[in-house]
């Protein structure tokens, strides 16, 4: 009886030992797996912070045709009379870059504008006619530009600052002698409009602009170059 009980005790003890060893190996294996797990931080991308990439982005060229309407009349400096201005036209060409994760763009732009004013009789200069104002402006623009906001239709808005080269040519006096005024100065503008994406590399756009290049003057006349106008153009990405 004593031997039998001793055998049972030994068997029970061996079973406990085996169970303990199995538990220890299991814990060690779990610790090993945990230690080998990848605990590094996930790689950061711009999309995590800024959202989805824009549908249309990259470097681009663009050009547009404008209608120009001066906001002020020409003033005769000798007697202060106002002379009506006529609508004109403008052309723009620009190279720029639109960001991929933010709806922002910046560009360098050249603009040509021309308009005229009516003939009149100045008490000092005599009869003044054939009056054309030509403006060459160079500007850096910054735009909020969100493409494909509603289907293919997007919006843009922004402004720019730069400088202008201007000339005002006219004929004056009884003999119709040719005269001109030239100058340079600061140029500012604001713009807003809509875009229509034709494909990821091509957009149509149209909008309105306010431009102001200051005043051109001589001893006879003062020309205010501020103007508003509409434009339509094409933007090509590459």
Question: Could you describe the 3D structure shown?
Answer:
This is Porin opacity type domain-containing protein. InterPro entries: OMP/PagP_B-barrel, Porin_opacity. This protein has helices at residues 2-36, 46-50, and strands spanning 58-70, 74-76, 82-83, 85-98, 104-117, 120-122, 126-150, 153-172, 177-199, 202-212, 215-217, 221-224, 227-237. The chain has 238 residues and is of the alpha+beta class. It has two domains: 1-40; 58-237, Porin (Beta Barrel).
How large is the share of residues in beta strands?
A: over 45%
User: Order of SSEs, N→C?
Assistant: HHEEEEEEEEEEEEE
Question: How many domains would you count in the coordinates?
Answer: 2
Shape: elongated
The name of the CATH topology of the largest domain is Porin
Number of helices: 2
Architecture (CATH level 2) name of the largest domain: Beta Barrel
Order the strands across the largest sheet as they lie in space.
1-4-5-7-8-9-10-13
Q: What would you call the structural class? A: alpha+beta
How is the main sheet built? 8 strands, antiparallel, barrel
CATH C-level category of the largest domain: Mainly Beta
Please compute the radius of gyration using only Cα atoms: 38 Å
Intertermini distance: 97 Å
Helix content bin = 10-25%
Tally the beta strands. 13
Low-confidence stretches: 1-11, 44-50
Mean pLDDT: 78
Family: Belongs to the opacity porin family.
InterPro entries: OMP/PagP_B-barrel (IPR011250), Porin_opacity (IPR003394)
Domain Porin opacity type: 123-236
GO molecular function: porin activity
